[in-house]
Amino acid sequence: MFANRVWHCFFSVVSFLSFAIAGMAVSGQITAGDFDTAPAVGEYSAITNFEARIDKVSFAADNRHHALRKARIDYYVDLARNSARQGWGYQEQDAIRRAKLILDHHVAQGLNDNEPG
């Protein structure tokens, strides 16, 4: 008789926890619409400042090295923006840092880059 009560109590606690965890998982789901909204003014200022810096640098369309650098920079900026939307500050900063390194390299190579693509 005591074993039945213990089993019933254990089963009730497990059932409660499973419903509680399932409820938390459902309430925390991300919908596709969460990524469609534009950031508020002042959000992602590091990203927008960096994009303004990118706009000041020229990339030759006929040079494959320039095209590759531009594609990699765009990839890291997109990664930073998505990380910011998720609230992943470290990954956002890391992506911006990587994009800055590529851009700095591009600017430095631009001074010596006379070879055709």
Automatic annotation (TrEMBL):
It comes from Alteromonas halophila. Residues 1-32 form the signal peptide. The keyword Signal applies. Keywords: Signal. The keyword Signal applies. This is DUF4148 domain-containing protein.
